[in-house]
Amino acid sequence: MYHTWMRYFTPSQVHHRLGLVCLGVGMQHGTLPAVGPRTLDHHVAVVIGAGGGWFEGPDGRRVAVTAPALIWLTPGVPHHYGPDPATGWDESFVDFAGPATATYTELGYIEPDRPVVPLADTAGARAAVGRIARAARRGNPLLEVETAAAVHELLVALRRARADLAPDGDPVLQALARDAFQPLSVAEHAARHGMTPAELRTAVRRGAGCSPKDYLLGIRLGRAKELLAATELPVAAVARRVGYDDPAYFSRLFTRRVGTAPVRFREQQGRAVPGGWSDRIPDPEHPPTIPGPAT
Question: Which end of the chain, N or C, is less surrounded by CB atoms within 10 Å?
């Protein structure tokens, strides 16, 4: 026996310009019938929360699927899969499409070459699927936008849940982030970790979807923006704080990558907050209490 719930949608071309659109969502459990062989023209993420089964790709080789796991179905690739008829499985699926799938694939969030991915857990993914299911109520005027936003969340949750990666990425990434403001070259960073530059590039590409140079630059520019927006430090001092001894080079780099000069960026923020800056991330669920007027 098995139980199935599903909904399917047809977003307009305007909604496709959001980057991702949700085409369908479903939640099923039990001894479900096998799917395929078939070929689709869009992506599907199939999240297996409990139980096990099998997956067969275009090479005809059958591999085991053991929960928690993810099955990637990609456009134009024949596939065939199903649960173990003796045990069944618990399955959630989301069909999606859009131009952003190419970027998510380039960044390593979607993995066409690895259709079966072990997961550490499925809680985050199931929460995103749940948001899509709740938005799927009949007559919801926000359906396409709500479900599209949840597909983005789903891809992030699945990336975070991969069993072969720590939630915040490879330990190498954490070390790079810690040392990002030191004036070190990529080769020097690699040597610190006992790696060649090529090995470092592979590790960073696998964990963050970009080169070490871009990863470090993103951290440096993010911190530079914080210092420009929240302090009155001169631009030269900001440059030194984020690892650039040459303020002119920093200004050119900032302008090229951000699209505006450091001084102009500061002016656009409209306020400086010396003395009020905090490195502690606030809890949106429990914001600080602002005292009312004295009585």
Answer: C
